[in-house]
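Lab channel / #folding
Pinned by the channel admin:
"Please post every new chain as: sequence first, then the structure tokens as a reply. Keep commentary short and put observations after the output so the thread stays searchable."

First post following the new format, from NK:
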Amino acid sequence: MPADIETIENYLTVPQPESIQLVLDDSRRITGPGMIWDRRGALIDVLVDGFDSAEVVAVWEAEIARVLSALGWDDSLTAHRIFENGVTLLISAPADLLYSAVFVIETGWHLAACRLLGQEPENFGKLTAGLKEVIALEKNPALIRLQQAADARNIDILSDDDFVSLGHGKGSEVWGVNDIPDPSEIDWNRLHNLPVALITGTNGKSTSVRLATAIGEAAGLVAGSTSTDYVKLGNDVLDYGDYSGPGGARMLLRDKRLEIAFLETARGGILRRGLPLFQARAALVTNIAADHLGQYGVNTVEALAQAKFAVARAVSRDGVLVLNADDPLVVVNGEAFDRTKCWFSLSQDNTHIRQAREAGDPCCWYDGENICYFDGAAVALRIAAADIPITMGGSARFNIHNIMGAIGLSRAMGIDNDAIVTGLTQFTASPDQNPGRCNEFMVNGARVFVDFAHNPHAISAMSALIENLPANRKYLLLGHAGDRSDQEIRDLTRGAVGFDPDLVVIAELEDYLRGREPGEVPALIASECTDCGIAADAVRMAVSPGEGTAHILGQLRDGDVALILALSDRDRVFELIRAVQD
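Reply from TO:
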């Protein structure tokens, strides 16, 4: 029986040489498919200055080979990724030895860094003796036997520090990590995988998850979802919080009521731990745009695309990748994976749409009025965009993208057209069904839109929607978090004021100062507003989003339009609007 996790996690401290040229930035376990490969193991991110990164990798490869050989880890593989200011180094490891794998890879780096810096390393025998001790403590042969038996039957296995489970939802069984039965004692006929979809991208993830879940429910299935807001199964919220990583997925997939699942899969969870499962029926990539760059060696939008496409590694061989053919980075990365693809586009003349139809592959497109799904033989589904509430009569083109992605996922998950139409036409942009995503209210005859958009792509999309709506006067509330650079704040502001608002209210985000002085971010926003042609007397300051919303609500008249970009104080914003809405 393995020792407790706290004992294992703190058993060793692998020393690292002091150097500003070679900095061990982070080390972590990888429990599922990730940015670089589809294996369990451990990785480290190293910041490199003054050394050739290829040389750093070569030296590490030599040293980690010595360590692995000394441990008898002959089956362990290595990989690496060179990025702008460093390298990511990986080793594979058995599912029961992931904490030990972190110590192993740190040891390999200790030896490599000392060699590169000309420093004396710790005694090799002493280092490997410590590794052997912690490996003996962590080893769990029962888990490996269970994994091998599950793999042989093509049944997914999910494991964490406390539990291990086989199958998904109604076809699952869960045990404590120290109470794993012998495979011969398991009734394998009761265990099976469910249709599970992974949804990732920069924008549209939560809306796509909720829309697809509504379609699953319209099909009469017990549908579950994870997102940045909660884990939900049917009408039950299992827990509130950001559950777009592996923890939320395991919580949902182990609930025996579940029949179909849609998992929001964020960049952070992919890079920190990898994906939660190895066998998904489908994956959707909505789009790729710059956001949260500079973490875990992901410094460019191209690298971000590679990270997001980890979801493709978890799609089963007979599964489907649902991909945005209008996004160049989605196209480039999607073409690299050997899976059935369902491309979708706002144009029926898109190259990938034409090619898919000629090849008899599924695809989805918008012809200017109707959303069409081609099943490989014929147009099996055609629905007017105006009949789907979240398109705002066809003006919200970003939601047309989200709808096409949800259609592709639903068909890949085996849902029929009638259920898809029902789900699409009954799903609305209300705070109850899709909180914070293009929520619309009527106040004094004016249209008020509330959105949590916080990156350039999402903000520009909302601005474009407002620009296309007729209005007597247009209003904007915005604020930005302080951990953005000055230039990022200016870029976000420029995108937000693209619809030329008649009044801009700038809200201080007290909970998001993140090192900035009060008033510093609003001053940057105000400066960019005037640079974009907004008159100085058309800019107001508010101490909070709630106060700013109240000011705008007091100005609204029949025929006006307002966009409230609420990053904080959200409950207060909704409360104020509901109190005065028509």
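NK: The chain is about 35% helix and 25% strand.
TO: also worth noting, The first helix runs from residue 5 to 9.
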